[in-house]
Amino acid sequence: MVNLILISVAALSLVVWLVQEVKGRRQMQQALQWCSEKRTASDAATLRQQALPGWIEWSYRLVLLGWFVWIASVVLIKDGDFALALVVLTIIAGIIGGLDRFVFEKARQAYVSAGNVAVYITYFIKKDQDSLKNEFAGPLPIAENARSFFPVLLVVLVLRSFVIEPFQIPSASMVPSLEVGDYILVNKFNYGLRLPVLGTKIFEVGEPKRGDVMVFFPPNDKRYFIKRVIGLPGDEIRYINKQLYINDELVQQTVLAEVPPLQPITQVIKEQLDNVDHLVHHDKRIYRGDFVTTVKPGHYFMMGDNRDNSSDSRVWGQVPEQNIVGQAFAIWMHWQSFNDLPSFSRVGRIR
Question: What residues contact 182, with CB distance under 8 A and at least 6 apart?
Fold first, then answer.
């Protein structure tokens, strides 16, 4: 629903601007030519009133209303795709801004700089001359906004799609490594460059390794998840009595503590996956059963560090390679809710 509104408003913006620029600009220039011949306006305000078609303003307001409706739908429905929104906004701003700059601008400027119109504008005071030239030869509001926002949108799109993307941790499935309210940075380059929205890899860089903390889309789910890479393609994974075996080798675990001390519920365990040392939690009250599987080609087996309180590959299956988003590598802020103050005590590298 939200994405449909976005695409509809973007298309509306393009169509309205084209009509304004082609039909409205012609009406504006015809009115300006008539005013210059008849000398109907003695001041800039009167000239604007006589030469600027009124429907251009209300059609611009209609477009603004459409964008407000989209923003409201994002806030209320909470079903939008930020990556798609960024791509659509960048494309529509680029199309409108590019056409305005390279197709229409030269003709507009030539019109107000020659003939009766150019002479007529010189009759006004210097300040009004400059403002009138800007209004009659400059971009209309939709194009002006597009040309202003396009460079910013393009930079954000490139950074977010190919370099670094921020995420917030919404659940406790990665405790103790990541806590609810942690804000993290995800490297979008390590696992290869991928097209935004489509997720198609266009440039090989590297592959996930055991122990990596990875952001991805689970099978048949459009939400972002973050878990630890446990199994690579071809690995045999066995999880027996809360002991993890990879290719028949027991993953080394060391119990560091049991909390709370008087009535222990949680075991804090140091686990070593290849060269990665990290902490996991075992809940002594919960036993989810044993699990055995072989990782399919082009897939990865993911588990949360909070082993007994994590929805992961034991529940929804293995993650296909095309669903990978990137590697989480750092915590840059902790802010659990708007009722709390942001904290930077957990800033650091993710292990």
Answer: 168, 169, 331, 333, 334, 346
Give the CA count within 13 Å in the CB-facing half-sphere of 24.
22
Q: Tokens in use for 166?
A: 């921020």
Q: Where is 45: in which H helix or E strand?
A: helix 44-51
Indicate whether 211 pLDDT > 80: yes
Q: Considering the entire predicted model, what is its pTM?
A: 0.82
Tally the residues of the chain.
351
- The CATH code that applies to domain 164-349 is 2.10.109.10
The alpha helices in 52-139, defined as continuous H runs, are 54-77, 82-99, 105-112, 115-121, 126-137
Residue 103 confidence (pLDDT): 94
- Which listed residue (13, 177, 188, 227) is catalytic? 227
Domain spans in the chain, listed from the N-terminal domain onward: 2-162, 164-349
Burial tier of 146 (Cβ tally within 10 Å: 0-12, 13-18, 19+): buried
Q: Is 227 a catalytic residue?
A: yes
Q: Which of the residues 13, 36, 73, 173 is marked catalytic?
A: 173
User: Catalytic site residue 173?
Assistant: yes
